[in-house]
Design brief:
Blueprint: H1 5-16, E1 19-23, E2 26-34, E3 37-43, E4 58-60, H2 64-73, E5 77-85, E6 88-94, E7 100-105, E8 121-126, H3 129-140, E9 148-153, E10 156-161, E11 164-171, E12 185-192, H4 195-204, E13 223-227, E14 233-238
Parallel strand pairs: 4-7, 8-11, 12-14
Antiparallel strand pairs: 1-2, 2-3, 5-6, 6-7, 8-12, 9-10, 10-11, 13-14
């Protein structure tokens, strides 16, 4: 969600080369595509709502009602839904530490981080990675998914899908931090062919390098986290072959 949809389209087109098309949700929501395939959605928030822009990851689920119940049973906040969205149903929630995420029940469940036009990876900055891994693992049923493998490391958890890193959970989020970027939150990691070139394009387009409580992790190469002119945090990393 952004404050100025026209400015956001121009920024991400310059940095990531995205193209945009209208969606079924109206003129204030567009679908971004890379190489002709959908990669993200950008909507303009209504006046008077939260001032900061934010990328929110949506997790595909088989049953939105079951997911909503699991979220609430584990002490998290169900903010919206499940409600009809496109050809499916969606909800918006915050985990026990305050990191915002969405979930969506619909016909397309094969789109996964690191595959096709999807983001390269999703990174969670949180207070306790082991508590977070337990929460998300129970909510989304990781233990019952043969394709999912969870690796626990010191201050770090990596979730792989079909042997490809899909999620990274890392210590560092401080719930009481005054600066939003230091609080528990999800970061969306977009792949690029040249990180430094994309960073330079982002800086030229008005992005900033934010202060974060932990360095970005990447399975290969390196990542850079940036803040768009509208305040949205996102990460860039080298595209995997």
């Amino acid at each position: 969600m952004v404050g100025d949809l026209v400015a956001a389209r121009a920024f991400y087109a310059a940095v990531l080369g995205w193209e945009f098309r209208r969606s079924s949700l109206g003129d204030q929501f567009v679908v971004a595509s890379a190489d002709g395939l959908p990669v993200a959605g950008i909507g303009e928030r209504r006046p008077g709502l939260a001032p900061a822009s934010e990328w929110t990851p949506y997790f595909a689920v088989r049953d939105a009602d079951v997911t909503a119940a699991r979220i609430q049973e584990r002490g998290a906040t169900l903010a919206v839904g499940p409600i009809p969205l496109g050809r499916g149903r969606a909800g918006l929630a915050a985990d026990p530490e305050g990191a915002t995420f969405g979930f969506w029940e619909g016909p397309a469940l094969a789109w996964a981080p690191g595959a096709g036009s999807a983001p390269a990876r999703l990174d969670l900055q949180t207070r306790d990675v082991f508590d977070a891994a337990r929460f998300y693992g129970e909510v989304f049923g990781w233990a019952s998914e043969a394709a999912i493998d969870v690796t626990f490391r010191q201050h770090h958890v990596v979730v792989e899908r079909d042997s490809r890193p899909a999620l990274s959970l890392r210590d560092g989020g401080a719930p009481s931090a005054e600066q939003p970027q230091l609080r528990p939150r999800w970061l969306v990691n977009f792949p690029v062919d040249d990180v430094e070139r994309a960073v330079a394009a982002a800086i030229d387009a008005g992005a900033a390098r934010p202060q974060l409580s932990a360095t970005s992790w990447a399975p290969k190469g390196f990542s850079r986290t940036l803040q768009s002119p509208d305040g949205g945090l996102f990460t860039l990393s080298h595209r995997e072959d």
